[in-house]
Amino acid sequence: MSEVNVLTTGEAARYCGVNFRTVIRWIERGQLKAYKLPGRGDHRICVEDFVSFLRDNAMPVPAELAAASRKVLLVSGAPELVASRQALQQAGFEVDLATDSFSAGALLVSGKPALLVLDANLAGIEGFQILDMVRSRSEFSSVATLVVAPEGEADQQRWVTAGADAVVPANCDRNALLARVNLLLDL
Q: How many C-beta atoms surround the C-beta of residue 110 within 10 A?
């Protein structure tokens, strides 16, 4: 089975139950991201962008497209958190790993994850910088963020204030982490 990466305006219209001209209007108004093919100028819509559009507008996400929402970016250098990558992969998530803010930014843009799992113990204030960048750019507005912080850390509330969707203790077991990931991604 091949994975669908892009949709035509007609396919997007069928998923939404509207005329394809309505989809074109959404694109022209900047409500739905798309690109034009060279030559004829037909629009194509990345599945990740379409799923984000559906969620932003409280529209149902078709099951065959929901798989696009199983992409996770794990930002950590800690061996115990990096080990969680395997647990996420075994649960059916596609997991990218970044160990610094530069690679995290690159993978956010290229990988288009649905969830960012951020280690609070990154060197310096990199974690807050990454979270600030995610929350300040509109193209990442649909990315959920989960911060893994030491238990009892005074900064846990600061992470939520900075824009994290949830904070879990660093010593939580893999099942608790998976449960929180599933909750944040509405799976």
A: 9
Q: Quote the Cα angle for 139-71-80, to 5°.
A: 115
Asked if 8 and 42 touch (Cβ cutoff 8 Å), the reply is yes
In the structure, what pLDDT confidence band is assigned to residue 7 with cuts at 50, 70 and 90? very high
C-alpha distance across the termini of the chain, in Å: 22
CA distances from 68 to 22, 60, 74, 185 (A): 23, 14, 16, 11
Confidence of residue 32 (pLDDT cuts 50, 70, 90): very high
- Residue 4 pLDDT: 53
pLDDT at 164 over 60: yes
Residue bearing tokens 């794990």: 74
Structure tokens at 175: 């099942």
To the question of pTM greater than 0.85 for the whole model, the response is no
**CA dihedral over 24, 109, 169, 87, signed as positive or negative:** positive
With vertex at residue 141, the alpha carbon angle to CA 23 and CA 108, rounded to the nearest 5 degrees, is 105
| Whole-number Å distance between alpha carbons of 121 and 114 | 22
The distance from CA 36 to its chain's CA centroid, rounded to whole angstroms, is 24
